[in-house]
């Protein structure tokens, strides 16, 4: 995806091709792993590999990773706290910012793998398997990846119109994760005329005629403090979304980024558009 928090990090395709850097960790030497991004942390927890993790970014709050040291938020990482931990392996995705963090860590001599250089379903599918392989849980990783991909199959088309918005202004247009989720839920992206995650004008909201609107829950205050207040706006009050109570909040990471929960998010979006 061109938007949604991920940059194109072509440099690290080369890391995957290098036999040394892509080799799985040896079981006889308990690995010390640092996780740069919450999506990869989800995978590690699902694989039951938490005991390997000595460092994680601060958005990740899984109880089983409570022993890991905080290295900072994935949106603003610095190399020093990671290097200080002397990890055997650093894992992350294109969610890690700045994008140069991978090159910085590699320059410091660390073993670094960006398991998902692009934010696409195929990249995330491969990331699940690759993470399992690197942590010595190859079969579990393959099984989890297959299960995830099965959950990503397209649902029957409904024709319902969706707007997925970060803050009541910025919406997920074409070539975003949000656009992918809408289509997999059987819906129509009412913001498909714009590219990426961009602001939609009041007129744009009016002509979009959404059946469903999703707002990032942490931005409820930005849209007036309540969904009722937001639904009463002139550009929304006559929409089916407002009239049918189909304006909801959701964690931004669920509908603007990919993760293990994405198949359930797709089901939720479909249910919101159901009669």
Structure in words:
The chain has helices spanning 13-17, 19-22, 38-46, 79-84, 101-107, 121-134, 138-151, 177-184, 202-208, 227-231, 240-243, 252-256, 262-272, and strands at residues 33-35, 53-56, 69-70, 89-93, 112-116, 161-165, 170-172, 188-189, 197-199, 212-216, 247-250. The chain is of the alpha/beta class and 275 residues long. The strands form 3 sheets. The protein has a 5-stranded parallel beta sheet with strand order 3-2-1-4-5, with helices on both faces. A 4-stranded parallel beta sheet has the order 8-6-10-11. Helix 6 packs antiparallel against helix 7. The protein is elongated and about 60 Å long. The model is unreliable at 1-5 and 7-21 (pLDDT under 50).
Mean pLDDT across all residues, rounded?
Answer: 91
Q: How big is the Rg?
A: 20 Å
Q: At the first level of CATH, what is the class of the largest domain?
A: Alpha Beta
What profile does the largest beta sheet have?
Answer: 5 strands, parallel
The CATH homologous superfamily of the largest domain corresponds to Nitrogenase molybdenum iron protein domain
The stretches of 5 or more residues where confidence is low (pLDDT under 50) are 1-5, 7-21
Strand order of the largest sheet: 3-2-1-4-5
Please report the distance between the alpha carbons of the first and last residues: 30 Å
Number of helices: 13
CATH fold group of the largest domain: Rossmann fold
Number of strands: 11
| Tally of domains | 2
Beta-strand content bin: 5-15%
CATH architecture of the largest domain: 3-Layer(aba) Sandwich
Shape: elongated
Helical coverage, percent range: 25-40%
Helix/strand order, N-terminal first:
HHEHEEHEHEHHEEHEEHEHHEHH
């Amino acid at each position: 995806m061109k938007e949604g928090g991920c940059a194109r990090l072509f440099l690290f395709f080369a890391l995957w091709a290098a036999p040394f850097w892509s080799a799985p960790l040896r079981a006889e030497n308990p690995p010390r792993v640092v996780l740069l991004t919450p999506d990869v942390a989800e995978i590690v927890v699902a694989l039951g590999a938490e005991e390997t993790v000595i460092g994680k970014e601060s958005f990740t709050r899984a109880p089983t990773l409570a022993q890991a040291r905080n290295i900072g938020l994935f949106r603003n990482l610095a190399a020093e706290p990671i290097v200080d931990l002397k990890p055997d392996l650093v894992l992350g995705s294109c969610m890690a910012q700045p994008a140069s963090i991978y090159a910085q860590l590699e320059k410091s001599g660390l073993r670094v793998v960006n398991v998902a250089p692009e934010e696409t379903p195929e990249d995330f599918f491969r990331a699940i398997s690759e993470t399992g392989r690197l942590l010595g849980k190859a079969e579990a990783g393959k099984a989890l990846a297959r299960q995830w991909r099965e959950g990503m199959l397209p649902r029957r088309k409904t024709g319902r119109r969706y707007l997925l918005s970060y803050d009541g202004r910025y919406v997920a247009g074409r070539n975003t994760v949000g656009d992918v989720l809408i289509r997999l839920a059987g819906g129509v992206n009412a913001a498909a005329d714009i590219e990426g995650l961009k602001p939609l004008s009041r007129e744009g909201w009016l002509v979009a005629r959404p059946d469903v609107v999703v707002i990032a829950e942490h931005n409820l205050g930005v849209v007036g403090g309540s969904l009722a207040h937001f639904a009463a706006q002139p550009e929304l009050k006559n929409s089916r979304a407002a009239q049918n109570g189909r304006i909801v909040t959701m964690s931004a990471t669920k509908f603007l980024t990919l993760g293990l929960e994405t198949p359930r998010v797709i089901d939720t979006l479909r249910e919101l558009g159901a009669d």
